[in-house]
Amino acid sequence: xxxxxxxxxxxxxxxxxxxxxxxxxxxxxxxxxxxxxxxxxxxxxxxxxxxxxxxxxxxxxxxxxxxxxxxxxxxxxxxxxxxxxxxxxxxxxxxxxxxxxxxxxxxxxxxxxxxxxxxxxxxxxxxxxxxxxxxxxxxxxxxxxxxxxxxxxxxxxxxxxxxxxxxxxxxxxxxxxxxxxxxxxxxxxxxxxxxxxxxxxxxxxxxxxxxxxxxxxxxxxxxxxxxxxxxxxxxxxxxxxxxxxxxxxxxxxxxxxxxxxxxxxxxxxxxxxxxxxxxxxxxxxxxxxxxxxxxxxxxxxxx
Length: 303
Description:
- The protein is an alpha/beta fold.
- The protein is about 40% helix and about 25% strand.
- It has helices at about 20-30, 50-55, 70-85, 105-110, 180-185, 195-205, 235-250, 255-275, 280-295, and strands at about 10-15, 35-45, 60-65, 90-95, 100, 115-125, 130-135, 140, 145-150, 165, 175, 210-220.
- Strand 8 (about 140) and strand 9 (about 145-150) form a beta hairpin.
- The protein is globular.
């Protein structure tokens, strides 16, 4: 009897005008040791020559060219639909500002074997400080829905007991099972950037799927490049807007009595921090994001 083939994985990379970072990411993906995968690049209307560079240096990479910047959620959904149509059993989403360890896919696919597992995340480090944790997944505060215990900023001591149950993981690096996507759907495109991954996690958990962290799967992240960097006006705008949309979607009834004061306090602290650092434009963008998140449901793609 012939051995069963390993599950077929599509690795999905989304790009928007980050040619150099995308080439570095694809180079690391080329070194993956997993025996059965394909890489698909979804380009969000880049104008920096990314597609031509990928054609030259990575002819094996499949390309999907969106005519404009659709954002993270809608852009990824284009790739997810394509991957599912190609028969993918898993899709691994990798930010284009990441590099991965060669055995990453082997580790996350092995962890996803149980039928009730819907997502598996690797351990993600800061690229600039390769032993310092950027994301180890997180638990969820049952009252405020905030993340807790994600270990961000801590040095990895390597004392992991094995795979860990998580309630939140991030879309920077994430394995999604086909059955999960067929059951709960794709990313909610109301989130142009940020919080679409947390929303997907809540939907997955509500549908009965487990979310795991596989600490032996490793990747390294250059933080917030897609929005221009941390605390830029664009990054602050989209973080604020998506946060409001997230809580509007998931908070109901009396829970608002707890969530609303908490979120107002968090917003005030964020604005004060930006003003103290002299980031006036970022503070104003943050306020606009809060307002737009409260008053607008759909994203206008040309924003």
